[in-house]
Amino acid sequence: MLQLLLLLLPLLWEGSLSQILELQPSVTVQAGMCAHVLCTFHRSGGLFSYHYGVHGYWFREGTHVLYGRPVATNDPSREVEDEAEGRFHLLGDPRMNNCSLSITDARFSDTGKYFFRFHSGYDKYSYLKNLLYVNVTDLIQKPDISIPEMVESGHPVTLNCTFLWTCGENRPFKFSWRGTALSSKTQSSWASHSSEVSFIPGHQHHGTNLTCQVTLPGGRLSTERTVQLNVSYAVQNVAITTAQDSRTTEIQLSWTLAKCGIENSCQPCGEEGELWIAADQDWAWGRRQAPWPAAFSAQENSSWPLMLTLLRGALMGAGFLLTYGLTWLYYTRNPLGREQPPAPEAAQCSMLLLLLLLLPLLWEGSLSQTLQGQLSVTLQEEMCAHVLCTFNDNARLRDDRNSVYGYWFRKGIPPTHDKIVATNDPDERVKGQDKGRFHLLGDPKMNNCSLSITEAQSSDTGKYFFSLHNGYYKYMKKLLYVNVTDLIQKPDISIPEIVESGHPVTLNCTFLWTCGENRPFKFSWRGTALFSKTQSSWASHSSEVSFIPGHQHHGTNLTCQVTLPGGRLSTERTVQLNVSYAVQNMTITTAQDSRTTVFISGNSSDLVVQEGQSLRLLCAANSNPPATLSWLLGDQTLASSQPSQNGVLHLDLPHLGPADGGNYICLAQHPLGSKQASLNVSVQYRPTPSHVFQNGVILGALCGAITASLLALCLLLLFTLLYFS
């Protein structure tokens, strides 16, 4: 009964020993996009069995591990969920304790919790306490449209539309262009990541929309970006209308360069000079002509942004002059004796005109300002993250010849302590430990505010917001929360399937670096199998080590440590070497009654036992993988083992008889070489009690006869001596 309980203990202990799984608790991915989840696990049993495959499974929470379907596995005999097939992949090698998961073409139905399970022979465990939460959000990533700085009427122009695809697969996208400036209203093409469109814009296309739509592989989802064309063209016509009370009067404007008028044809009178604007209007109380100087350099082709600036300046100048004129007219009587408007009415007119002139300034930044981007990002220390971000800024007209600056701030307490961490403004310097680690990836001209964080530090945890330079509009309602966690990512060590004793072997250590920069890492190897206990080198992403293992190195540890750039943090992975070697030594152990005797192969071994006794023979062979053992007597096979029985085979010989004697051979068969050991067993005859009695009688009779003969001989000699004396 005690032996049975001891045999059942390994089964009762399943999963009760130390089982550790390391992975991020959650991952957020946009619909149609991809995500990679780093995952490692540790089991209490150490090295996996050489003879059993190691299978890993990712299941949805609540799925039966035996009868349900996983979403990802490396087990060819298990079917995966129909909806997850081809989209969920077990990237890691479970033999290397790697359970990393990849999700492509994410769908809303993928939202939920998942757990990992491994299975190797009788060794299996489900990590139900370490769940991964997958959150699939709306697709907010948009393509980027690059526009030349100068788009002139009548000149060909080419626009490029690019979609950032994080999955790494070279799959075609459907790009569709539409807009009034195109020869056909819609143009479609299939391309990889980018598409171009060419057309000749006219002045009528200024301010019109041009849209690039990207349909993701599979055709389920699409995303688009729309830009307004900013076409430079010559002056067509100019008119300004003013409103006072219920009267609407057109003001005639004339442009004067020195003493030469500029017509609508835009033919310049000279290269440079003093530009004057005169506003003529017949009012009830007089005719006003207000000159307004402005510096101006004449160009052959005027652009619309320049004209807009001039008109805005002219309107403001004329407005202030008119306001001043109304005030002057109020305080000075009309020489003709005409009745002036009441003071309140004049003041109201002046105030109304002033407000109308100030509206363009007041509107700046007050129109629709929206920002779209993920609300939070989680990354490990010293790792990197890319935050996709777009914004709509309808408050200002884009001028491609002017720079557009964006700023990412870390929110401070109090708000006066807000700190710039990234910008494209060359006049702003990022200071302190943020310098060189935060980057404004997106182009604010294209409404792109994407942010990159490299070499993350725990102090980076906090809230961030984006700002534009137009009045420093702050998108305070869309705060980005950055959460920096401990570094749990470990390097991967690739080991050949067969590692044989006495043969050179090369191991590769790779560290997945998501930042994309080609920066060197310090790789350090240590282990008893190496020529030197520690070997170090500087390499980019991977390192190799070569050595010749021996049978004594089987089961020993080999560690690859990676020190990240900067030298602050390091991470490592340790594997156990599984070295294949031939049979090293064999022993035969005998158990008889309470006596145990060990015989070593190579020596002449003999054993004598009494007839009727019982004997147990135990053969042990040290090899990896375990050899196949067999007990032979002559040409007869008495017992054999399977390779998974740890290289031990016993043979029970109860009630030995004369026929059981002979040369017992233990044969160890191994792919790298076979070996055998033998034991010569002799069975000694044991007499019965009746035989002992008969033998005693006979022996007693013989002894008595001999004694009587000797006594008679002695008496005869004595008589002879007495007679002759």
UniProtKB/TrEMBL annotation:
<feature type="domain" description="Ig-like">
    <location>
        <begin position="491"/>
        <end position="576"/>
    </location>
</feature>
<dbReference type="InterPro" id="IPR013106">
    <property type="entry name" value="Ig_V-set"/>
</dbReference>
<dbReference type="GO" id="GO:0005886">
    <property type="term" value="C:plasma membrane"/>
</dbReference>
<dbReference type="GO" id="GO:0007155">
    <property type="term" value="P:cell adhesion"/>
</dbReference>
<feature type="signal peptide">
    <location>
        <begin position="1"/>
        <end position="18"/>
    </location>
</feature>
<keyword id="KW-0430">Lectin</keyword>
<dbReference type="InterPro" id="IPR007110">
    <property type="entry name" value="Ig-like_dom"/>
</dbReference>
<dbReference type="InterPro" id="IPR013783">
    <property type="entry name" value="Ig-like_fold"/>
</dbReference>
<keyword id="KW-0812">Transmembrane</keyword>
<dbReference type="GO" id="GO:0030246">
    <property type="term" value="F:carbohydrate binding"/>
</dbReference>
<dbReference type="Pfam" id="PF07686">
    <property type="entry name" value="V-set"/>
</dbReference>
<dbReference type="InterPro" id="IPR013098">
    <property type="entry name" value="Ig_I-set"/>
</dbReference>
<feature type="domain" description="Ig-like">
    <location>
        <begin position="594"/>
        <end position="682"/>
    </location>
</feature>
<dbReference type="GO" id="GO:0033691">
    <property type="term" value="F:sialic acid binding"/>
</dbReference>
<dbReference type="InterPro" id="IPR003599">
    <property type="entry name" value="Ig_sub"/>
</dbReference>
<keyword id="KW-0472">Membrane</keyword>
<keyword id="KW-1133">Transmembrane helix</keyword>
<comment type="similarity">
    <text>Belongs to the immunoglobulin superfamily. SIGLEC (sialic acid binding Ig-like lectin) family.</text>
</comment>
<protein>
    <submittedName>
        <fullName>Sialic acid-binding Ig-like lectin 14</fullName>
    </submittedName>
</protein>
<feature type="domain" description="Ig-like">
    <location>
        <begin position="143"/>
        <end position="228"/>
    </location>
</feature>
<dbReference type="InterPro" id="IPR036179">
    <property type="entry name" value="Ig-like_dom_sf"/>
</dbReference>
<dbReference type="InterPro" id="IPR003598">
    <property type="entry name" value="Ig_sub2"/>
</dbReference>
<keyword id="KW-0732">Signal</keyword>
<dbReference type="InterPro" id="IPR051036">
    <property type="entry name" value="SIGLEC"/>
</dbReference>
<dbReference type="Pfam" id="PF07679">
    <property type="entry name" value="I-set"/>
</dbReference>
<keyword id="KW-0130">Cell adhesion</keyword>
<feature type="transmembrane region" description="Helical">
    <location>
        <begin position="697"/>
        <end position="724"/>
    </location>
</feature>
